[in-house]
């Protein structure tokens, strides 16, 4: 049995520091630039959107992850996605990377970069460059909340968590922050998630743990069925805890469970903060032939505008569910399909769909669709 506890407040792992501030990218004047720093070189793994159009920072990150082995910092801006900006966008992303690297006297290849916000506008590099000295000077172990506030866009609350566990007799911490409220659909969502751990772990083991965690969390949520261009889940492991490097066995199992717990908790926060949402919906699909079938049907229901608006209106219309299941592409028999919809009166709604086809199951999460969603996105520019 794994011994893991959720920290009462978000605490950065050993060797990490963070900061966030307003550099002027957002017209509102709210924080829009964040920095996560590791005093020791860290192993890194990431999962990105599967959209064929990706933002410039993802291009840079993928290249750095391909050619470099160890990393020191992650620079994140909100207010501008630096996407659909062509070669100029890549040049802009690299300019911020190089500026930060010079400031910290580290290799540009050890810098990872991320952006979120408006698509199609050039990034104001000058504002970011001007803010970097203050951003780096303000790095601290207590700065994680400032960093979280700086990555938010339409989010209404901060999404952060940390847990503690023991690995090979050594205390280890995993901490994560995330943003996301709209354009939320696999794979993954308009969301950014940055995970830090002081555990020592091999590259292959870290990738295995992250892949499993993302598949059971961020790839199981949808707010509006729209896939973003900037989605990133990134994990840094700096090994400062001093444990024997995790490579497999019981230690990897325990670490993976803790990582999955963190990712699922944050994924649920994203859904609960869905733009204009008033209800959090859990959809359990069971008795499927395989997990893939159960997950596909669950997401088809989650992305049904008719189902989502029915939940908002507290209208128990089973036809909306049956229609989505039937349109999923699987040969579901009417006489075998069972639908159980819980009360729609509260903020949490549970739907169970039984297919009578096998023993596999999957759970996905979504929110209702409200006039608030339309109002937010009609004005977003």
From the structure above, extract its key features.
single chain; 381 residues; alpha/beta; L-amino peptidase D-ALA esterase/amidase; Ubiquitin-like (UB roll); 2 domains; nine-stranded mixed beta sheet; five-stranded mixed beta sheet; 33% helix; globular
Topology:
Blueprint: E1 4-6, E2 16-21, E3 33-48, H1 56-67, E4 71-80, H2 86-104, E5 111-118, H3 125-137, H4 144-150, E6 159-167, E7 170-179, E8 192-197, H5 203-215, E9 221-222, E10 232-237, H6 249-272, E11 280-288, H7 291-302, H8 305-312, H9 318-326, E12 338-341, E13 348-354, E14 360-367, H10 371-378
Parallel strand pairs: 4-5, 8-10, 9-14, 11-13
Antiparallel strand pairs: 1-6, 2-3, 3-4, 3-10, 6-7, 7-8, 11-14, 12-13
Helix pairs in contact: 1-2, 2-3, 5-6, 7-9
Question: Can you give a write-up of this model?
Answer:
The chain is α/β, with parallel strands linked by helices. The chain folds into two domains: 4-272, L-amino peptidase D-ALA esterase/amidase (4-Layer Sandwich); 280-378, Roll (Ubiquitin-like (UB roll)), CATH 3.10.20. The chain has ten helices and 14 strands. It has helices at residues 56-67, 86-104, 125-137, 144-150, 203-215, 249-272, 291-302, 305-312, 318-326, 371-378; strands at 4-6, 16-21, 33-48, 71-80, 111-118, 159-167, 170-179, 192-197, 221-222, 232-237, 280-288, 338-341, 348-354, 360-367. Strands 1, 2, 3, 4, 5, 6, 7, 8 and 10 form a nine-stranded mixed sheet that branches. Strands 9-14-11-13-12 form a five-stranded mixed sheet, sandwiched between helices. It is globular and about 65 Å long. The N and C termini lie far apart (49 Å). The relative contact order is 0.14. The model has no long low-confidence stretch (mean pLDDT 92).
């Amino acid at each position: 049995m794994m011994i893991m506890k959720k920290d009462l407040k978000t605490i950065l792992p050993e060797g990490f520091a963070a900061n966030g501030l307003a550099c002027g990218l957002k017209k509102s004047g709210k924080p829009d630039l964040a920095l996560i720093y590791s005093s020791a070189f860290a192993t890194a793994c990431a999962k990105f959107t599967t959209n064929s159009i990706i933002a410039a920072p993802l291009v840079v990150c993928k290249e750095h992850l391909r050619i470099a082995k160890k990393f020191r910092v992650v620079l994140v801006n909100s207010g501008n996605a630096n996407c659909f900006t062509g070669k100029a966008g890549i040049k802009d992303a690299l300019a911020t990377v190089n500026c930060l690297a010079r400031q910290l006297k580290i290799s540009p290849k050890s810098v990872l970069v991320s952006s979120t916000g408006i698509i199609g506008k050039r990034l104001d590099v000058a504002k970011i460059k001007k803010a970097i000295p203050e951003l780096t000077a303000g790095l601290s172990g207590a700065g994680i909340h400032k960093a979280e506030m700086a990555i938010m866009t339409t989010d209404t609350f901060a999404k952060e968590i940390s847990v503690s566990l023991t690995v090979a007799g050594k205390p280890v911490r995993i901490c994560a922050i995330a943003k996301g409220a709209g354009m939320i659909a696999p794979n993954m969502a308009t969301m950014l998630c940055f995970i830090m751990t002081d555990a020592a772990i091999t590259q292959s083991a870290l990738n295995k743990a992250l892949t499993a965690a993302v598949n059971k969390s961020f790839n199981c949520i949808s707010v509006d069925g729209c896939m973003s261009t900037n989605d990133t889940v990134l994990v840094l492991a700096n090994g400062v805890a001093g444990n024997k490097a995790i490579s497999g066995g019981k230690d990897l199992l325990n670490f993976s469970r803790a990582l999955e717990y963190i990712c699922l908790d944050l994924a649920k926060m994203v859904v609960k903060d869905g733009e204009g949402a008033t209800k959090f919906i859990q959809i359990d699909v069971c008795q499927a032939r395989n997990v893939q079938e159960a997950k596909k049907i669950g997401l088809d229901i989650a992305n049904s505008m008719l189902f989502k608006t029915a939940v908002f209106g507290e209208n128990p219309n089973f036809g909306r569910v049956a229609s989505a299941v039937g349109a999923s592409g699987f040969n579901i028999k009417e006489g075998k399909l069972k639908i159980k919809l819980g009360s729609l009166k509260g903020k949490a709604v549970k739907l169970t769909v039984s297919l009578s086809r096998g023993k596999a199951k999957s759970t996905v999460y979504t929110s209702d669709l409200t006039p608030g969603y339309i109002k937010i996105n009609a004005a977003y520019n």
